[in-house]
Amino acid sequence: MAEVKDVVLEYVKNEYLEEGDDRVINYDTALISGGFVDSFSMVSLKVFLETKYGIQIPDAKASPEAFDSVNNIVNLLKEFNIN
Amino acid sequence: MSFSTETRNIFKTQLEEIRNGGIFKEERIICAPQDSDIEVEYPIGSEHKEVINMCANNYLGLSSHPEVIAAAHKGLDSRGYGMSSVRFICGTQDIHKELECKLTTFLGTEDTILFPSCMDANAGVFEAVLNEQDVMIADRLVHASIVDGMRLAKAQNDTYKHSDMNHLEQKLQLHQDKRIRLIVTDGSFSMDGDLAKLDKIVELAEKYNAMVFLDDSHASGFIGKTGRGTQEHCNVVGKIDIITTTLGKALGGASGGCVSGRSEIVEMCRQKARPYLFSNTVAPVVVAGAIAVLDIISKTTERRDKLERNTEFWRKGLTEAGLIIKEGETPIVPVMLFNAKLSQDFARDLYGEGIYAVGFFFPVVPKGQARIRTQLSAAHDIAHLEKALAAFKKVGEKYGILHKTKQEVIDMYGM
Question: What count of Cα atoms within 13 Å lies in the side-chain half-sphere of residue B344?
Answer without folding.
Answer: 9
